[in-house]
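[recover] target loaded
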């Protein structure tokens, strides 16, 4: 497997996009720090040294929004390998102990490539203003973790879940349901300017969230979820 290790980069997703035509599927870009790490909706993603900031280049046969769950499940399994219990906060976060520990950003070009970008707080210090909502692996283990071992576990699980995604997306989604901690809970979903409050009932096979709002069922394709 090809792993490109960089001391510093703007964003591993951006770097991956720049080289995508010249490298095989499965190529991994990992950087010690990012100067312009990005999250969903153009938000910035703080990426100091000590965290795991990586992107993997995939060339799936179809465009499929469920790819994000390959990343989320791989992160949950990696955390479990280090004794940390976590769950998926639909659609693309992993939370542990009530705080965000990882975020996933998928980008791509239809029919050409998909970039699966994963940010995982490992040993990096969480800035004061984020401490209420974000957490690192080190805060659970009480000691620094070897970044290389975390990456190795993550790549192992990514490979496994990617195969499930390709061959049995229904099984992938069954696992996502099992790991999603928002189901059965009262949530507020922000989708654009709209705030939708209700009960999160299910994650459907296409990856969308099924909610009950005042007794009406509604399918949400994408949004930011907060628990009430
Ligand atoms: C989010 O929670 O909104 C997604 C955050 C994704 C961060 C990762 S870090 C590696 C890759 N490179 C980026 O610029 N972003 C992703």
């Amino acid at each position: 497997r090809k792993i490109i290790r960089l001391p510093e980069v703007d964003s591993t997703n951006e770097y991956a996009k720049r080289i995508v035509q010249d490298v095989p599927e499965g190529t991994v870009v990992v950087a010690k720090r990012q100067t312009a790490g990005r999250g969903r909706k153009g938000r910035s993603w703080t990426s100091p040294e000590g965290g795991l900031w990586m992107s993997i280049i995939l060339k799936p046969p179809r465009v499929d929004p469920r790819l994000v769950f390959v990343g989320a499940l791989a992160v949950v399994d990696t955390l479990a390998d280090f004794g940390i219990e976590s769950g998926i906060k639909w659609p693309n976060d992993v939370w542990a102990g009530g705080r965000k520990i990882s975020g996933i950003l998928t980008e791509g070009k239809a029919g050409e490539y998909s970039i699966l970008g994963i940010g995982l707080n490992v040993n990096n210090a969480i800035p004061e203003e984020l401490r209420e909502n974000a957490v690192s692996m080190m805060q659970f283990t009480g000691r620094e973790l070897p970044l290389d071992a975390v990456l190795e576990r993550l790549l192992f699980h990514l490979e496994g879940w990617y195969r499930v995604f390709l061959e049995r997306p229904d099984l992938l989604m069954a696992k996502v349901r099992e790991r999603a901690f928002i189901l059965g809970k009262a949530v507020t979903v922000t989708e654009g300017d709209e705030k939708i409050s209700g009960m999160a009932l299910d994650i459907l096979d296409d990856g969308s969230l099924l909610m009950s709002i005042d007794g009406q069922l509604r399918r949400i394709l994408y949004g930011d979820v907060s628990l009430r």
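[recover] notes: The first strand starts at residue 3 and ends at 9.
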